[in-house]
Write a structure and sequence with these properties.
InterPro entries: CheY-like_superfamily, LytR-like, LytTR_DNA-bd_dom, Sig_transdc_resp-reg_receiver. The strands form 4 sheets. Strands 2-1-3-4-5 form a 5-stranded parallel sheet, sandwiched between helices. The protein has a 5-stranded antiparallel sheet with strand order 10-9-8-12-11. It has 263 residues and is of the alpha/beta class. The protein has 8 helices and 15 strands.
Length: 263
């Protein structure tokens, strides 16, 4: 039972994501949304001004990560936080260090309810205070760049009921497979991961990976040859002998990426 009004700030760079959270929170009469923020800078200003009790925080934003935001706040004003992310790997990192809760997009309404009820259960009691202390410890002990995909050499993939830690440099190529993607490794192993081609590219965020077809991403560091049929078709030959077609809509950007003139 909650006997006080809980002030909430929603932080997400996606308008629709913020709107959905606002709609879901409308079912709770003890929730007061005091602000919405589309980037990290505004989030810092808003949290400092409104001192909310709870923040729904997107981890990956254009200007800074959710952890960067928390790192710039006064530790005495840290709110309870529900992390939101489109990538399982970020969620796992957040959960490993700070066991409050996280939502992986796209999430169901029922999952949102579970997340909120978990926070409300601990709100204001000793367990809640311990969570704040753990969050303070997280901010003090973990550099924000640890959560920046640009600096990660590994990625966490959800494979069935398990999570697999994979070295990005050892990925040979990636193929789409319905609602999943197949991450193929140098050693021939294959990991099935629920994601889209666009999301996995953002998650890996590595200059060596380039999409060559609507269903294929290749690691240029694992490419041995680029061949042409002489009739406009281009193929990428990987070091393991796999030959992949470069789609027509990706041909121009692919050749430009390799500084190869189209003739």
């Amino acid at each position: 039972m909650i006997n006080q009004l809980i002030k909430v700030v929603i932080v997400d760079d996606e308008v629709l994501a913020r709107q959905r959270i606002r709609i879901l929170l409308a079912d709770y009469d003890f929730i007061e949304i005091v602000d919405e923020c589309a980037n990290g800078k505004k989030a810092i200003e808003s949290i400092n001004v409104h001192a909310p009790d709870l923040v729904f925080m997107d981890i990956q934003m254009p200007d800074m990560s959710g952890f960067d935001v928390l790192g710039k706040l006064n530790s005495n004003l840290l709110p309870l936080v529900i992390f939101i992310t489109a990538f399982d790997s970020y969620a796992i990192k957040a959960f490993d260090y700070f066991t409050l809760d996280y939502l992986v997009k796209p999430f169901r309404d029922s999952r949102f309810k579970e997340s909120l009820e978990k926070v409300l259960k601990y709100f204001g009691d000793s367990d809640g205070k311990n969570m704040i202390k753990r969050l303070q410890h997280l901010i003090e002990s973990i550099p924000s760049e640890s959560f920046d995909s640009k600096n990660d050499s590994k990625i966490i993939l959800k494979s069935g009921l398990n999570y697999v830690l994979v070295e990005i440099g050892k990925i040979s190529h990636i193929k789409s497979s319905g609602p999943y993607i197949e991450v193929l490794m140098e050693n021939g192993k294959k990991h099935l991961h629920r994601s889209s081609m666009a999301n996995i590219l953002k998650e890996i965020n590595h200059k060596s990976f380039v999409q060559v077809h609507r269903s294929t991403i290749v690691n240029l560091d694992y490419t041995s040859e680029i061949s042409s049929t002489g009739m406009g078709e281009i193929f990428v030959l990987l070091k393991n002998g796999v030959k992949l077609n470069v789609g027509k809509t990706y041909k121009k950007s692919f050749l430009k990426r390799l500084n190869i003139s189209e003739s």
